[in-house]
Amino acid sequence: MDKEIFLEDFNRISKIGWTKEFGVNREALNEFDIKVRNALIGELKKIGSSISFDDAGNIYGSLNENETNAIIIGSHMDSVPNGGRFDGMYGVIAGLNVLKNFHINGIRKNLMLVDFTNEEGSRWQPDLQGSGIATGVFDKEFIYSRIDRENKKFVDVLKASGFQGKEENRIKNLNPEHFIELHIEQGPVLEKEGYSIGIPYGIVTDIVDFYTFIGESNQAGPTPMNLRKDALVGASRFISEINEIAKKQTPNIVMTVGEINNIPNIYSVIPSIVKLKLDIRSPDQHLAYENASIVYEKAKCIAEDLGLTINKERGWALNTTLFDEDLIKKIEKACKELDLKYKHIYSWATHDAMYMNKITSTAMIMIPSHNGRSHTKEEFSSDEDMIAGLKVLKKVIDLI
Amino acid sequence: MDKEIFLEDFNRISKIGWTKEFGVNREALNEFDIKVRNALIGELKKIGSSISFDDAGNIYGSLNENETNAIIIGSHMDSVPNGGRFDGMYGVIAGLNVLKNFHINGIRKNLMLVDFTNEEGSRWQPDLQGSGIATGVFDKEFIYSRIDRENKKFVDVLKASGFQGKEENRIKNLNPEHFIELHIEQGPVLEKEGYSIGIPYGIVTDIVDFYTFIGESNQAGPTPMNLRKDALVGASRFISEINEIAKKQTPNIVMTVGEINNIPNIYSVIPSIVKLKLDIRSPDQHLAYENASIVYEKAKCIAEDLGLTINKERGWALNTTLFDEDLIKKIEKACKELDLKYKHIYSWATHDAMYMNKITSTAMIMIPSHNGRSHTKEEFSSDEDMIAGLKVLKKVIDLI
Q: Which residues contact A265 (CB under 8 A, 6 or more apart)?
């Protein structure tokens, strides 16, 4: 019966803000995020759960009178623009389902459900704002002053939403026993290799460097090839080379240039400035930093060769997060008992579990993403895989 | 005395719409273009010149009663955004100076000065609109319906400017004898090699192809390097390789990617679509088309290698323009008589002379651009070089 309740809740709530053409548009605290928050609160009320908010707008629900020392489960319900239905939402609805099960069959553990605000960070940067505030990683004033594309401050939107609660309600003050986040893989490995469950050792190191290649803008026609200082040629050679460098180290590292800005970007003008962001991730922290240095040297060589100047700034760097070993073992045990094929992996994306890991024993449970697609309307996980993940979550809670 | 008058006129009028910080912002028919047009008309009135406009807003001035069968001199006064003071303006003010000389010393030839509308094409595309209409290359309705960034139609702005004249005033109807355009080189060759004057054989072939590389967007972290279809890696490899191909053929060809658009352009997302414009120019028409095919094959190989699909459309192609040989010989003779070091070159940028060449015997005279800079506030040609070019123009007119 849990299965039917879960699928009904998931299909109904995950479709809020969804269209076939554009996927999910449920950026933090927008109209659709407010709708899913209210839908969640509606479900929690039905089962007599307490409902509270902290000063980041995180939503907490519990069936227990004493909310301290709980096992926290949950994730986030916001999405990137044109995102998928499964990212984040799966973990929250699964957590809700565990509470519903307790409501029907009796409370077996001290559990608390959480929906974190603005995990994605697409509306206000940086990401993981809700968990960052709830765990004390972020300074509240800093997050409150962040502005979105329409120049709206986070604090103003939060206040208007009605979800601003008290600082004392932060998760950190509740001294939680554990945090378990159930999430889609967002990558292709589990499906490709035929596993039902992924058990992350932790979250990989993520270094983001901002590069600027500076050349000289000139009319494209009258400037001979040997007298050019073309910033885009420099950036292109750099992108090609780092791709080769990263490919040779598969599967230990990934390097991505997702964002590039070319100035002045006129077809008949040689580009003078190219700015790009290089994202390097590896479970091996040293390998990540070593590669960041190697490719910087490569960039300097390319710039020298082409008569360009180069500038590199470290955008940010998050070192490898390692989850709680005992909790990982319990997830492994749960998979074995349920006869589910599992694989130890790393999470190559950040999650709220990263900050929760700083204040309590934390782990994640992952399920396959079809074709590895995520942050797109094509994002998909099967009912079977979702139910398997939910079963593992329940079993782990019982094993704690 | 011509020299002082020229420099005074040039320095005064070319600075309209100029700031040190942003260069010249005198896009066609904007407030500053209107100001320079009125300044030009003011000067023409002082010397008793006729003043007329055609239906493209081109301005004509002549000291002769019979305006047919004239030698046309001039260029354009509009600029690109953040452009330089010399491009176009030099040819117009030099032409004005020849008329002023005739006014003072007596009319020796049937001359007509022209200022062409929207040569740059930055406000309304395509470029060369004034000369294109005046020579019958463009359909008037097509040009009239072009809209700028603010959705303003060319015809509406032209009407409001007061510069819309009659179709019968078009240059083509005056059956001109010659067209001579004095212009800055916009490239580094003359200065680098120590020449005062460049005599273009003509204007190079210009092929512009629109490429689209299509891959698959995914979360940057969880997608291993070997399972990616990164459109930006494909485009980058393409840009690097065409640069190498073009460099090997220096100075016979140039290839430029000035414009690139990366989708979705988010640092943490593998790019799914990259659109770019490839501009290929060569005096040798066959070499240009051959290279366009070679690099297309190269793009297909890269796409296949990376699992991308590719799309190529021909944006446009302008074949090589060859100027009048007799007129070129007269320019050469003028340089010799003036003891000026000259070089036969090609114009690697388009000019109004390209369309004028379709209706009359046409040639250009070019002077050095400091460091080859153009379409930027750093654009500069020395007084000495400007005066040398003016002298050649006058001598050529006397030789005709």
A: A271, B258, B259, B260, B261
